[in-house]
């Protein structure tokens, strides 16, 4: 059986623990590369974040780009959302089974004011903003997308994270009734992601509720998804139902599956290749009807947001903490 077939075994067919363990071993074998000391992993402690501040003006320069927008049709039909299938067109073709209202988000962990909030309450009092951000997938394609949403920091601050809140962990809904892809163990559901607290509080980190001025389509992570433009696309977790402030680096979906290939930080970095392919260039999904991909362009450190975010990683070995 090929790895791909193994990954597509529906969960209901995995009846005993041994089969499940075998599959884990298979995935681990896949992930085993040369022992390079790549340790962007959940059980090692990275250096503490530097104490840096950027001015609001510096931050604002990252909020927009004049680059050609990716067409709405392409943003909404070329997707990664494994809860709705592993093919790029699976999510947009899937029946609209996700119930996006009412939608609640549970916020807890190391904070003074935990709570379960209805999405509309979570966003109450915040003014929606438009941000034009690049999104670069680890697979080597990228888009330029006009998002609507609110700064993540403005939402997080309301829960008053305490001094032990060193990281923020995010979780996607995992309901097999609403998400057909959950029947396949392509990922250890639910999908999980995480940020260091200073990354989460950075002015560029954004919670999107829409794109192109319309509510987020199901395939793009309705009704609420993260957008972290300086990191590979998989950090931008979709359809969020839980946010937790935690002391230890949280486990994340892709790291859990292939720790050797996907580190916790996952900053876009042309100098650190994915073990199976180069990250030096990308193909922009640029938006002509006749051609999905434009010519290759160089990938920029931090996806072009170095002026805004490089200081967060001052003194860190980004090959080690990839
Ligand atoms: N819950 C969840 N979030 C997810 C994914 C996923 O499979 N499930 N895929 C990620 C990946 S790999 C990318 S590149 C982006 C794609 O976002 P888009 O489809 O809106 O362009 O979503 C990310 N967020
Ligand atoms: Mo991705």
From TrEMBL:
Cofactor(s) annotated in UniProt: Mo-molybdopterin
Reaction(s) this enzyme catalyzes, per UniProt: L-methionyl-[protein] + a quinone + H2O = L-methionyl-(R)-S-oxide-[protein] + a quinol; L-methionyl-[protein] + a quinone + H2O = L-methionyl-(S)-S-oxide-[protein] + a quinol
Domain Oxidoreductase molybdopterin-binding: 98-254
Pfam families reported for this sequence: Oxidored_molyb
Gene Ontology molecular functions: metal ion binding; molybdopterin cofactor binding; oxidoreductase activity, acting on a sulfur group of donors, quinone or similar compound as acceptor
Gene3D superfamilies listed in its UniProt record: Oxidoreductase, molybdopterin-binding domain (3.90.420.10)
Function statement: Part of the MsrPQ system that repairs oxidized periplasmic proteins containing methionine sulfoxide residues (Met-O), using respiratory chain electrons. Thus protects these proteins from oxidative-stress damage caused by reactive species of oxygen and chlorine generated by the host defense mechanisms. MsrPQ is essential for the maintenance of envelope integrity under bleach stress, rescuing a wide series of structurally unrelated periplasmic proteins from methionine oxidation.
Quaternary organization: Heterodimer of a catalytic subunit (MsrP) and a heme-binding subunit (MsrQ).
Family: Belongs to the MsrP family.
Name of this protein: Protein-methionine-sulfoxide reductase catalytic subunit MsrP
Gene, per the UniProt record: msrP
């Amino acid at each position: 059986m090929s790895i791909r077939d193994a990954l597509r075994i529906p969960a209901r067919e995995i009846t005993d623990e041994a089969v499940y363990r075998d599959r884990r071993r298979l995935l681990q074998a896949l992930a085993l590369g040369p022992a390079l000391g790549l340790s962007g992993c959940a059980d090692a402690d990275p250096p503490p974040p530097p104490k840096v501040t950027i001015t609001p003006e510096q931050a604002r320069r990252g909020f927009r780009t004049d680059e050609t927008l990716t067409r709405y049709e392409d943003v909404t039909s070329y997707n990664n959302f494994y809860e709705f299938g592993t093919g790029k067109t699976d999510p947009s073709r899937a029946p609209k089974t996700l119930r996006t209202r009412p939608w609640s988000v549970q916020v807890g962990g190391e904070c003074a004011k935990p709570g379960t909030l209805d999405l509309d309450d979570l966003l109450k009092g915040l003014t929606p903003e438009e941000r034009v951000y690049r999104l670069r997938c680890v697979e080597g394609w990228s888009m330029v997308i006009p998002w609507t949403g609110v700064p993540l920091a403005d939402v997080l601050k309301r829960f008053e994270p305490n001094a032990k809140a060193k990281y923020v962990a995010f979780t996607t809904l995992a309901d097999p009734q609403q998400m057909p892809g959950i029947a396949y163990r392509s990922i250890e559901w639910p999908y999980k992601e995480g940020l260091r607290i200073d990354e989460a509080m950075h002015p560029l980190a954004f919670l999107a509720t829409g794109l192109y001025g319309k509510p987020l389509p199901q395939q793009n992570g309705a009704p609420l998804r993260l957008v972290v433009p300086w990191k590979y696309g998989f950090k931008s977790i979709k359809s969020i139902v839980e946010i937790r402030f935690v002391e230890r680096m949280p486990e994340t979906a892709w790291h859990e599956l292939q720790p050797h290939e996907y580190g916790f930080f996952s900053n876009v970095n042309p100098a650190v290749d994915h073990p199976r392919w180069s990250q030096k260039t990308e193909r922009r999904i640029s938006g002509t009807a006749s051609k999905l991909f434009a010519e290759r362009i160089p990938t920029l450190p931090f996806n072009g947001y170095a002026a805004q975010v490089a200081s967060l990683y001052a003194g860190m070995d980004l090959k080690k903490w990839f």
